Amino acid sequence: MTTAHDYSEGIDPERALKYAIQHHSGDRTEIVEGVISNVTPSWDHERAAKLVRRQIETRVDALGCVEGSGNLDLPGSANWYVPDIAVVPEELAHRGGALLPDQTLLIVEITSKSNADTDRIVKRKRYAEYGAPLYLLVDRLERSVTLFAEPGSLGYTKVDGPHPFGTVVRLPEPFGVDLDTGGL
């Protein structure tokens, strides 16, 4: 008599889900609290990201880092993020694969109508929990910029903002850059 084999033995659901996302069609696909979604930025969203990148790129280069929107894994959770901008040391960018939030120097998320609360609430909490040192929220719906620093298990303990678009926001060391938010 043939019996059915239970293939669920030894399978780690988190690992299987993240493996599937990584080997998806190459799209920008994230998992936020277990929900899979494609990240398809609009042109005005990309424009805002470009404006931030241009203002930090000289300092990013001087720090020996790269800025981009690579994958961030949050181990032990059903989360796999693709931030709008993350600044990471160049040596980590060479090794391939996903990085962890605490391996970044700065993470920038730019809200869209479809993900504003995710960026404002969920990602802010998770980035702090996973040790991302600086989280810059560019809220296009509220027309404001907020910088979060000093992460901990309960969230960021230092908040600078929200500042209305048009305000100059200082990115602290190691950046030491004044970010002009007027064109966002």
Chain-wise SSE layout:
Blueprint: H1 13-22, E1 29-32, E2 35-38, H2 43-62, E3 65-68, E4 72-74, E5 79-81, E6 85-89, H3 90-93, E7 106-110, H4 116-129, E8 134-139, E9 144-152, E10 155-164, E11 168-171, E12 177-180
Parallel strand pairs: 7-8
Antiparallel strand pairs: 1-2, 3-6, 4-5, 6-7, 8-9, 9-10, 11-12
Structure write-up:
The chain is an alpha+beta fold and 184 residues long. It has a domain at 42-69 and 81-180: tt1808, chain A (Alpha-Beta Complex). 26% of the residues lie in helices and 33% in strands. The chain is built from 4 helices and 12 strands; from the N terminus they run αββαββββαβαβββββ. The chain has helices at 13-22, 43-62, 90-93, 116-129; strands spanning 29-32, 35-38, 65-68, 72-74, 79-81, 85-89, 106-110, 134-139, 144-152, 155-164, 168-171, 177-180. The strands form 4 sheets. A 6-stranded mixed sheet has the order 3-6-7-8-9-10. Strands 1-2 form a two-stranded antiparallel sheet. Strands 4-5 form a two-stranded antiparallel sheet. β1 (29-32) and β2 (35-38) form a beta hairpin. The radius of gyration is 18 Å and the shape is globular. The protein starts with 12 loop residues before the first helix and ends with a strand. The relative contact order is 0.13.
